[in-house]
Amino acid sequence: MAGFVAGALAIVPMTGVFWASRGAGYIDEVPPHKAIRSVAPALPEPQLTLTSAVAHLLVGAGAGAVYGAGLPPRFHGTGTGILFGLLVWVVGYEAVMPAATDIRPAHRDSRPRAATILVAHIVYGAALGIVTARTGERRAKR
Questions:
Q1: What does the mean pLDDT of the chain come to?
Q2: Per-position b or e across 30-62, b if 16+ CB within 10 A of its CB
Q3: What is the pLDDT of residue 38?
């Protein structure tokens, strides 16, 4: 459960990277929004935004649960979190997203877009590792 919550929290700074990159013109649309739009093109904008936010939150939380439960607590931390974030990026943007949506694989995407998504996953992983480790530290003190 701690990993699930940590994954949901780690989505916040990750989303910040997406929005900052969008504001700087590196990406045209944040990836979760683009993914949901590609599979549900008739969805009106307010529902599209809500659906993409909820989907991204659930994916991030689910991945966090995998990290939290799949790795012994003594290994939770920034380094393993970043490695996990990179794994999520590779699986998500080289396999799952291209297969399920109209998003191109990372190696075929524009460099600014691919770099933004990569950095966002590094930030997600770092945040996930930090929050999960701190949650474990609090439990150990009880």
A1: 92
A2: bbbbbbbbeeeeeeeeeebbebbbeebbebbbe
A3: 92
